[in-house]
Structure formats: C-alpha cells, structure tokens
Design a protein that fits this description.
Blueprint (H helix, E strand, L loop, with lengths): L9 E6 L2 H17 L4 E6 L30 H9 L2 H13 L6 E6 L1 H11 L3 E5 L11 H7 L4 E4 L2 H9 L4 E2 L23 E6 L6 H21 L4 E7 L5 H10 L5 E2 L5 E7 L3 E7 L2 H7 L2 E4 L3 H8 L4 E4 L11 H10 L3 E4 L3 H12 L2 H15 L4 H17 L2
Parallel strand pairs: 1-2, 1-3, 3-4, 4-5, 5-6, 7-8, 7-12, 8-11, 12-13, 13-14
Antiparallel strand pairs: 9-10, 10-11
Helix pairs in contact: 1-14, 3-4, 7-8, 7-12, 10-13
Length: 401
C-alpha cells in the first residue's frame, strides 16, 4: 500500500478572475516552497491559462467577453457571457469539480460563487481566499456569510473585513494582502533614464487591453507635451499582462506615433521607442520592477491598480470620456471605495487628464498623502505564506484520517 503522506499533499487551487489567477500562482509558489512534494494544480473558472505557466492548469476553461466582471449585478456583462457559452462552461466546471473529491484540500480564490462551487461540487476541505469583496466597499450579505461559514478558514483582503466576518461567525483572519506578495523585483533592467519622470501605464489584462492602451496613449501624449514645457522628460513603462495580446498592444502604441524596436527578450523590456516628447517601453514579466521605478501610474487595471497603490504609487484612472468622474462606472466606483484617496479618477479627455496629472506631480504633499493612503488601504504582504501553511495543515490532517 502506498503511504499517501509520502507522496505529498494533493491541493487544487480554483480561481475566478485574472487577478485571482495571479494570486493563486503566488499561493502555489508558497505551497511548493513549504512542501516541495506537494501536488498542486489550478482550475481557472475565468480565462484560459498559458500551457507554459505553473502550476499546471486543469479542467475546462474559456475566455468570456466580460473577463469575469459579472459581480455586483452587472446584468449586461452577464448576458454577454451567457451568449458566449457561460452556462455550458460553468456546468462543465461543476462536473469536473465533482470528480475532485479525492483532493486533500482546495483553495478557492475569488468571490463567494467560487467558494460555493467548490463546497457543493468537490466537497473537500476548502480554504477561502476572499479577494473579491471588502467591507470598505460593501458589507457581506447573509447568504454570503452563511456560505463563508462552511470554509475551513477564510483569508480576508483587509483587517476591517476580517473583523466583520469573524463577528458574524466566519473563521476569518487577515494575514497580509496576497496581492502585495506578487511585487518582488526580478532584477530586470528597464533602462530608466536618470532624472526622467516615469509613468507606469497599466492597460489591464482583459480582452480590451489594446483599446484601453490606445486611449491611454492619447492621454500620455498630452501629458508628455505639458510635462516637457514644465522641464520634465517623460518615460513610460507599459505593463503587458500575461493574458494580454502583445501584438495588439504594440499596434496600439505605434498607431499613436511611437515606432517600436523589439528587443528579442521574452521578459523585461520587450520593445521600446521614442520621439521628441516621449520615451516608451513595453514590459512583460517584471511588474514589480516596473512599479518600483514609477513616479506615478496611469491605470485602467483591476489588481494592477491596487498593487500599485499598495506600493505607495499614486494611481490615476480615467472616467469614460464625456462622463462626470464623480459618476464613474460600477467597477471603478468599487475600486475608488476600496482605495480611497490613493486613486484619483479624472475626466477621460486627454488634455484635461494631462493637466490634472501634471498638477498632481507638482504637489508633493498630495503625492505623499496618496502614497500613504494606498499603503494603509492595501496592507502589508505575507498572505500567500499564511494561506499555504493553512492549506498544507488541512491537507496533512486529511491524509492522516
């Protein structure tokens, strides 16, 4: 008979979002560091994994039009996903999870739907990493609390949410923000010129990243012209998320007048270009380095914006052109509530956005305030190691029963 403990614990990570998939990766690396013999696999409820990525992806997956943004009763996105086959995909994923009951532990990373699917289908001891909701934005409903009580342990995204969950009978804790565990420096050389004003540009990781970057290029162009008159040389570092289309992002940059030369590298700076007003580089696989170099962030991302704010970088996001930034869309409104003064939402018109961005750059006290709020709202790193220890302890207990 094979000793189950001798072959290592069998742990399945389940995520339902692009940012959540990245967080699952941080947890997987922490589990492997703590127990190299562990078998670790990853089911993506949202998006499709790159076959070269680790941990290995398992089970059915597909890209959906919304990129997973169907929470907070976003009926339009939900309808688009249904037309694209969401119902069949979810059923296939449910069936896959029903065949995973031999796992020693499951780590559900995302919202309460992710947890519920794991609890109902897999019926394994489950750790819940509640990345999708904070009491700083909206309280958990009675149904959400009832489901969360079924998890072995819940890791909340901030201390305030953990306290509220615990008071409601959920075995909840806050052990550090796992989003901040992914910002380690790789040592990549990004070619930042001494004295340059460095703008990190985060177009996001969803299917609309190319069009988002095109809009940001207009704002970046306007900003660089104004900054040049003010004596600044602007250097932009554009983040390419793992799920983004590199070719599409390069086209968006070149369409707005910056001709790129590829570097031949697969990580770090993969392409760069410059003209009279602007130096620009596209960066892949070195997000921590990119954020570390930045003075300010032009961000249309989700997790990326929050990681940048947590690193003490002022984050500027654009409202839809022509709309009042005080009446922003539901997703950015949620992020604004979460990050508070660390996130500045500006009108989307390039000249207005640029003028407000330069005003911020010339206000060191406000920059420092935004940095302090971002660090406070996001909290310290360290959560991935805590989740790994909890999952491994639960798995060990299962193996011994």
């Amino acid at each position: 008979m094979i000793d189950a403990a001798a072959v290592g614990p069998d742990i399945l990570l389940v995520s339902n979002g692009f940012g959540e998939a990245a967080i699952a990766g941080y947890i997987a690396r922490a589990i492997a560091a703590d127990n190299p013999s562990a078998r670790i696999e990853h089911l993506l409820l949202v998006g499709r994994a790159d076959p070269s990525e680790w941990p290995p992806a398992v089970g059915p997956s597909a890209h959906m039009p919304s990129g997973g943004l169907v929470t907070y009763w976003n009926v339009r996105n939900f309808a688009r996903d249904l037309r694209a086959g969401l119902g069949g995909l979810t059923l296939a994923q449910f069936r896959y999870l029903t065949r995973q009951r031999q796992r020693d532990a499951i780590v559900a990373v995302g919202d309460i739907f992710c947890l519920a699917l794991c609890l109902v289908a897999a019926r394994c001891p489950t750790v819940f990493v509640a990345t999708a909701k904070s009491d700083l934005v909206a309280p958990h409903s009675r149904l959400e609390l009832a489901i969360a009580r079924k998890a072995m342990v819940t890791f909340a995204r901030d201390a305030a949410t953990a306290a509220k969950l615990k008071a409601a009978g959920v075995n909840a804790t806050f052990a550090g923000n796992i989003m901040m565990d992914g910002l380690n420096s790789t040592g990549a050389h990004l070619g930042v010129a001494p004295g340059a004003l460095v703008v990190a540009v985060l177009p996001g990781s969803r299917s609309d990243a190319g069009s988002a970057l095109g809009e940001q290029m207009q704002r970046l162009r306007a900003f660089s012209r104004l900054a040049k008159r003010d004596g600044h040389t602007v250097q932009a570092l554009v983040s390419i998320a793992p799920s983004a289309d590199e070719h599409e992002l390069c086209q968006a940059v070149e369409h707005h007048g910056v001709q790129l030369v590829t570097s031949g590298s697969t990580s770090g700076v993969i392409a760069s270009g410059a003209d009279d007003d602007l130096q620009l580089s596209l960066v892949r696989g070195a997000f921590g380095d990119l954020i570390g170099c930045a003075d300010i962030v032009f961000g249309q991302a989700g997790t990326g914006n929050e990681q940048a704010a947590g690193s003490g970088k002022p984050v500027l996001a654009a409202a839809v052109a022509g709309e009042d930034p005080n009446k922003m869309g539901w997703y950015r409104m949620r992020q604004k509530k979460l990050l508070g003064d660390a996130l500045l939402v500006l009108p989307g018109e390039p000249d207005v956005f640029a003028a407000e961005a330069l005003r911020l750059i010339n206000d060191p006290a406000r920059m420092a305030h935004m940095a302090a709020v971002g660090r406070d709202r996001m909290g310290p790193p360290g959560g991935a190691a805590a989740v790994a220890k909890a999952a491994l302890a639960i798995a060990a207990k299962e193996q011994n029963t």
